[in-house]
Structure formats: C-alpha cells, structure tokens
Write a structure and sequence with these properties.
The protein is α/β, with parallel strands linked by helices. It contains 15 helices and 14 strands.
Length: 394
C-alpha cells in the first residue's frame, strides 16, 4: 500500500523514513519523535516514523492511538512497524535509528533501485550520543552492504564539530529565555505552590536506583529545604521503597526538610518546561540529558547501565568535556557525586559537597550550553548531507 502523504515533492523537500525499535520505553523513541517533528516542521520534509511499540510511545505523544497502524500527528505520519513489512513507496532518506535492522523487503527494494541505475535512498545509521574521542574518527564513515549495492552512512551525535551535533529546535533557547517560572509553578507545580524562599527545586527522572534512599536521607536531614518533583517513571519504585510506602501520581509526601510531589508522565514539551522550572535536574539516558543541557540548569546524569561497567567510560568521557573550566573543588565534587549516583551509593557527604558548588555549576552550565548552541544541530546536518548529490561522500 502506498501512503497518500508521500506526494511528489520539490528538490529541497524530501521523503524521510525513520525506523525505531522501543528498547527502554522512552529513550530511543523520544529522540526519534523529536527528530521526526523537527524534520517536518523546520525542514518541511515528508516524514514517516515507523515504531514497533506504539503503546510505549503513547505517553510521549498525546493523541496517539496505539490501536491504529497508521495516523498523522505533529506533521508526521506514524506507522506501526509490522512483520511482514508492507509494500510502500521508497523514501529519499531512510534512517536506521540506534542499531535497529531495517526490514529486509525494504533493503531489497533499495538495492533494486541501484541495480536499475536509479537513485537509491540515502541510508543513515543514527547512532547513540557519545562524548568519547572515537566519535571524531567514526562519524561519517561509510559501510558497504556485504551482498547488495548499497552504502550505509554513520551519523553519531556528539559535542563538537567532528560529530553529528545535538537535537535542537529553532527558537528553543529563545523560548527558554522567555520562560515564566512563577507562572509555571502556579499552573503546573503539583500542589500549585512554588518553592518556598531558600527551598531547592529538584526534578528526579532516573532509572531504578538504590541511592535514592541515601539521597532522601541527606535531603530530609539537611539544613536546606528541598522540593523534589518526581515524574512518573521507573525511579518511582525506588522512591516508594526509600519512603517505605507506595506512592502514586498526585501524592505529596513530607519528610523533614524534604517535600516530594509525584507528577504524571508528560509530553516532551511539558518536560522541557519542568527542567526550566527547577534549580537542579536528575536525568537519565540520552533524550533527557540533551534537554537538561539546553535548559541550562545544573544536572545529574543517570547513564544507561551496561555490562562490565562499560557505561562509566562513556560517563567519564562526558565529564571530561563538561568539567572544562570548573574550579578544582567543583570538578571534584561533581565527578564524585555523579559517580556515587551511578554506582547507587550516594550519601550525605557526597550531596553536601555537591550542594556547596551548585552556584558555580549553575553559571558554568549556562556558559557550556551557549557554547554548544553555536554548533549546527543534528536535523540540519542530516538535511544538508542528504541533499548532497553525491551519496558516497559525507
């Protein structure tokens, strides 16, 4: 079946297919959904997003009906990725996101184009974000198919001009600059009350983490009040365990100097505003990390755990970039706190040392964000490459 949305387009406007398999509920699809909408809205491409798990996708995309195999939302055609794969018109660009394997019938159709001396789609392998040094050597490499006359191009998001950059919509930082925090707290702060004078507003979005208990103890017994907003996510199990009682969306719990508000899971734009409203943001995975960076507030990254602690190599590579320009005290406190959080062993001493340098981190993060914003964003780099007439060169 040929999609009706795939109409003849101008040379600048292309047909794009993005393929995504949902692995940990929100990370992979979160990036793909942002990218799809930006390609459609800002670059006027005709975008088709193929997702294997629409149920997990639905919380990120209000209005999505998981029972429908085909629907149009946010300027993007959303399709359920089924087996067998349906017969569809080939796109101009095909993105294989985060190592998912393209459907074999689609790959075969792409190869037939080349065999018939027709232009085959650009085949992009969009990799996970990394701050490691090898990105400069691997971004842009090509990989010929072992059997078919096709070439895959690797795009690796990162933090300098030798990478594919980061997702960043036009006008995002203008929106951030005009953000009205008091108005947000009045409308969206859980109970409707903004933080009290001197109270630290923190958002907590993470994977399950045994360190929550130690962190809550530090916050409860500390001299500074903490208002912690917890969006519904996997960390809620750890939060409930730390307090010794089950917590549900809408509940408010107080323990010493700590006030907890359990919030519903929200669409991506609302989560962006949550990050702007808080003084410190705990984030997880890739999508929320990038959004925390653009928010320009101090943050703590819960990196996705990997076997043999391979994730700590990635974490330290990021810290080596992020910490440039910090004082020795701030550098040490930040690295120690991030490591204890990711090793699930945070205690009061680690928190107090981190809290002491938070003002410096706030200024540093704004400067670092503004430097990153000078780079070309991921969607623009992809578009520029895929409008190049030579498909064998980056």
């Amino acid at each position: 079946m040929v999609s009706r949305t795939f109409m003849p387009l101008s040379a600048a406007r292309q047909r794009w297919d993005i393929f995504c398999t949902v692995i940990d509920n929100y990370g992979d699809i979160g990036v793909c959904w942002r990218l799809a909408r930006q390609l459609a809205a800002e670059h006027e491409h005709c975008v088709r997003l193929w997702v294997d798990d629409l149920v997990s996708f639905a919380p990120l995309c209000p209005g999505l009906d998981p029972t429908l195999a085909q629907q149009q939302l946010g300027g993007v055609e959303i399709r359920r990725w089924t087996v067998p794969f349906p017969e569809v018109e080939l796109a101009d660009v095909v993105i294989e996101a985060f190592g998912c394997a393209l459907p074999e019938p689609l790959v075969a159709a792409m190869a037939r184009c080349r065999e018939q001396n027709k232009a085959a789609p650009y085949w992009i392998n969009l990799e996970y974000l990394s701050a490691e040094s090898w990105v400069a050597e691997c971004h842009g490499l090509t990989s010929p198919h072992p059997r078919l006359p096709l070439i895959k191009h690797f795009f690796i998001p990162g933090f300098d001009e030798h990478s594919a950059g980061l997702l960043r919509e036009r006008g995002l930082l203008v929106h951030h600059a005009n953000f009205d925090a008091p108005k947000w707290w009045k409308a969206s702060g859980g109970s409707g009350n903004p933080p009290e004078a001197g109270q630290l507003a923190i958002s907590l979005f993470a994977y399950e983490n045994r360190a929550v208990a130690g962190l809550f103890d530090a916050w409860s017994n500390g001299g500074r009040g903490v208002l912690c907003l917890v969006p519904e996510s996997r960390v809620l199990k750890s939060v409930s365990g730390a307090l010794g009682k089950p917590l549900a969306v809408g509940e408010i719990s107080r323990q010493g100097a700590l006030e907890l508000r359990i919030r519903p899971f929200v669409r991506q734009e609302a989560y962006d505003d949550l990050l702007l409203a808080c003084d410190l943001n705990f984030v997880r995975g890739e999508d929320s990390l990038v959004r925390a960076i653009w928010a320009g507030k101090p943050f703590v990254w819960h990196i996705y755990p990997q076997d043999k602690e391979a994730h700590f190599v990635k974490l330290d590579a990021f810290l080596d970039r992020y910490c440039v320009g910090l004082s020795p005290a701030a550098d040490s406190a930040l690295r120690h706190f991030w490591h204890t959080w990711n090793r699930e062993s945070t205690d009061a001493d680690a928190w107090l040392a981190f809290l002491a340098v938070l003002p410096e981190l706030a200024e540093h993060t704004l400067r670092w964000r503004d430097q990153l914003a000078k780079q070309i964003d991921l969607a623009s780099l992809l578009t520029g490459f895929c409008q190049n007439s030579d498909k064998n060169q980056l």
